[in-house]
């Protein structure tokens, strides 16, 4: 048996194809260049985007001749073998050694100028010349005087641009794809420092262990999805870089999770070569997915609690504001207060209690639904406000009684208002309409306190009281 060997060949034109097709968005090339500076222990990176040129300049460790040769080594394992930077001990982001060719997705020519101590040189990659040089695999390297750069560092210039980038898009991608919060690291875009944005909301710390590594970060619950830059979802970061936003499919059954953002760090996760996704059939990702779904299940309970608390605060503001309006209306109309059995002055209260024996109120037969409202124990989302007239007090309680229960009911000087009634739910979408609705129910129950026999009189009394509650007639 004869065994022959065949060579593995690589068409040099494919190098350009890799660069052009490596990322789904060509804007990723800027993120890649900034992260290269981070890996090189840079403390400052300046990105300049002009009409015909893009420049990324850093003050990192720079490269000597050997470093430049390594830089253009396709698929180099240098960063995987030495995954910590020498000065700041940073976890290096680069892994595959092909990201620098992503520049070819936006330009026809790029230059890399680097200085390390007394060595400085410029390497040029021109796409047109590369394609015309047949089997020539070398790039021109021009030696420079070290003074070409003020300090050690690297400058990458992109020319012959055929794609344009909006500054807002570049800033967003740098915020997501660069470890912008790292110590001793600043990024400037056209001389403007890029800083991490503060997002207001309920903060939830996360720190979970797994057999593959630590899962940590912070989730933020916001009140409106419009506040989330880049759309809802948790930023999943590996080595400080956002790989993707995810809610692990749970937002389909629990849409309230769309109010959740924040960032989770899991450096052990295996990522795809274009850094836009994870290798999902890996054991590490399966474990991560399981842990995060458990975290979100716990967070769901917290979200429901906070939403109830938010609803409670909103209802308290509404009922307090409405009670004040009703009280002012009664004070302006003493005759209405007397008509419904609520004296507004101490003298009237004294006359009521000392000069008159009040007849015993007839027992009112309640429906089963009304009995459920009255007998219900004060729930955690209940709101109670007190309406004090003279020495008498009327309490107003807003609570969840079920959508089939009455809108409102009064028992033992307590006015119950049902938060679950379809009418209340509909009116709750607008603050002014909700105030009108609560005022309507309060005035209705107040008018019925003395069990008026004349329906017309009851309606007229409520109409007058409601008008003075909602319309300020003070000159």
Automatic annotation (TrEMBL):
InterPro entries, A to Z: HATPase_C_sf
Gene3D superfamilies per UniProt: Histidine kinase-like ATPase, C-terminal domain
Pfam families linked to this entry: HATPase_c_3
This protein's name: ATP-binding protein
Taxonomic source organism: candidate division WOR-1 bacterium RIFCSPLOWO2_02_FULL_46_20
